[in-house]
């Protein structure tokens, strides 16, 4: 049964958001004809596909290791045959079909939305990590001079692409749940009539990079309602979604769009396997309105042709082996790993820094956003701390324009408990040195 939601944003609405660059892209002459190659009896002289007889790969074998004691660790075989042939060749722009299908089922399982059979009006595309999706989303949505609502502080890796696309940043203050809905409402309610309105809000809602903050359900509902009221999109960059430590994961913006009822089609969600499988495997995906995903795919077909398909084949084999439950068990183990790291790291911070720094305990992700008892963390962190043998990022890099801030971002993903203890001793010494004590 087809049940197209009556409240899906009209497809012409996206014309207001898509950039001239996105609208001027055309399907690749070759890729547009790829589906016809599968027609029975067709002889294809179409693409410059290298002949697979010349590829020196017979099989791909991946040995799994247990991430926690007792977990199974078999070998995955991607044997000569259609899977390997597809993975080694030029193939679908939006991702290997079987991986695409798994991700579609996963999004349905986790976020309660299904994109097949016309049940919901959105699309999915596999990308080379979520940064790739982010770059293409910026190119599709941000025009020179467009206002973009961002968290303050914001993921430092988001600043360059948005800047290059021509964004004018509107910083929204954050609290312990990330972007403040109250401040966002204030900004939007007072937005001058004669000024072009912001097109989108960019947010990292779980285990925020850098602040560690996670938005609760009500916060997301409030921001989603503001998006509806003021007609802007939500770019939900959520690579730490599966690294939620205690209790249930808060519904994503993408899920809430449906749960709340009313109109859909405002959320472009970015997922990543970097933090739970491997960052080098470069697999992520974007889920959102068909018009935007199509624009991103046209970008891919011109810029990369396709996301790395041997990586996709490995992830596809792994997902087929695990199934959705196995994947969710795995990410639960990974989240547990980082929860233990957080506890140890925070314990060391409490021991060495509590009189000279403050922070909010992160409930997801990898970051502690430390407010040092000094005016300018840059003065402490940039050179002095390095000279004393500890590297962290000064808060200044998480703002689009330079400023003086007492914050610094510490990542607890790698440090052992011994390293954490030593790092905080060194940081403490550095703060006192800076203060001349
Ligand atoms: N967004 C945020 C908020 C991140 O922290 C990161 C990784 N640093 C990315 C995107 C990029 O992740 P990926 O490896 O999936 O490209």
UniProtKB/TrEMBL annotation:
InterPro entries: Aminotransferase_I/II_large, Class-I_PLP-dep_aminotransf, PyrdxlP-dep_Trfase, PyrdxlP-dep_Trfase_major. Residues 95-427 form the Aminotransferase class I/classII large domain. Keywords: Aminotransferase, Pyridoxal phosphate, Transferase. Gene3D superfamilies: Type I PLP-dependent aspartate aminotransferase-like (Major domain). The keyword Transferase applies. Its cofactor is pyridoxal 5'-phosphate. One of its GO terms (molecular function) is transaminase activity. Signal peptide: none annotated. GO terms for biological process: alpha-amino acid metabolic process. It comes from the Eukaryota. Belongs to the class-I pyridoxal-phosphate-dependent aminotransferase family. This is Aminotransferase class I/classII large domain-containing protein.
